[in-house]
Amino acid sequence: MNEMLDEIILHYPQAQDVSKQELNQKLALLRALSDGIIEEWLLFEEKMGAFRAKGAGQKEWLESSAETRSEAFMRGQGYYRLFMFRQAIDAFETVVSQFPDSIVSRIYLAMAYLQLGESNDAYRHFQLIIPLTDNKKVKAISYNALGCIQAQRKNFEKAQEYFKLAHQTDPQLQEPLANLKVCQYNDGTLQYGSELTSFM
Prior knowledge:
The protein is mostly helical and about 200 residues long.
């Protein structure tokens, strides 16, 4: 968006008739995009505030800590919320280099890598999350994600092991059972991320 705005600013003074009209249309589009992003951001912050207010038992790693107060973390979180996953990865890699035991940073990293289809890096971070947390739901969600990555690689036996582990760790989580059926019957769509996203 900034690049497009820079281009408009550069060309607008010399623009004539049709080209000026095109630049005005681009400006209107940028305004609409900007308004949409701000609305989404405010809605997200409202939901996050409500979640933090009532979910004290589930947010061991969301508590304010040195890493979550760091500039790199806040920048990465902002990029992630704006679906700028490559920039989010760069920021969170900086955070985990300073705070290797940061569960929330690794979750953001793993999810950003998954969003970009970079399953090897996502897999590595989900594996690192499991021994770092006692939160059963976070563990189960991580096992489920590992299972999905294995299923995408056609390693169905290993995928089923992970889905069973996820179910044993947190029987209330629905995604692993659905994914187990996808593997067994080779039918349907793998489910991951929706439960984890609610933690972020």
